[in-house]
Design a protein that fits this description.
Elements (H helix, E strand, L loop, with lengths): L2 E2 L4 H10 L3 E8 L4 E5 L3 H22 L11 E6 L2 E9 L2 E8 L4 H16 L2 E2 L3 E2 L2 E2 L2
Antiparallel strand pairs: 1-7, 2-3, 2-6, 4-5, 5-6, 8-9
């Protein structure tokens, strides 16, 4: 079970309202389960969350190869025809993903995401799971 203290849906809406071009915001666990979303449909958010689990694992593996790196993924920005994809570490075993169109300026988005992570990170934990069950 994913634990979260308080409801931060309004914070996701605030990010959406403050940055033009956002299509979908997803908060997910490290193993790819959707915790929360704003925009988009639930099935699409689930697919994004699952894909993000693989991407964060891949970037953490690459980070291991950088001297003096702690091996942890902080932020990934992918430019796609028609927009951008952002993935940021957001707390213990949790991540914040945003899909946005071309109106979104990457520097502004990453700064706003960092602000949101500071606010939600302390209220969000996703304990590791083994065989589909939460480990303590």
């Amino acid at each position: 079970m994913i634990q979260q203290r308080g409801n931060f849906d309004w914070m996701l809406k605030e990010l959406d309202d403050g940055v033009p071009g956002i299509e979908m915001i997803v908060v997910l666990s490290a193993d790819g389960l959707r915790i929360a979303r704003h925009g988009g449909d639930p099935d699409a958010a689930d697919r994004v969350a699952a894909a993000c689990a693989g991407l964060q694992s891949l970037t953490s593996a690459v980070a291991q190869e950088i001297p003096d790196s702690d091996g942890e993924m902080k932020l990934v920005v992918v430019e796609i025809d028609g927009g951008y994809f952002y993935l940021m570490a957001a707390g213990a075993n949790a991540y914040l993903a945003v899909l946005a169109d071309v109106r979104c300026e990457p520097g502004h988005m990453s700064a706003r995401m960092r602000d949101l992570v500071v606010r939600i990170g302390a209220h969000l934990t996703s304990p590791p799971r083994r065989n589909g069950r939460q480990t303590v």
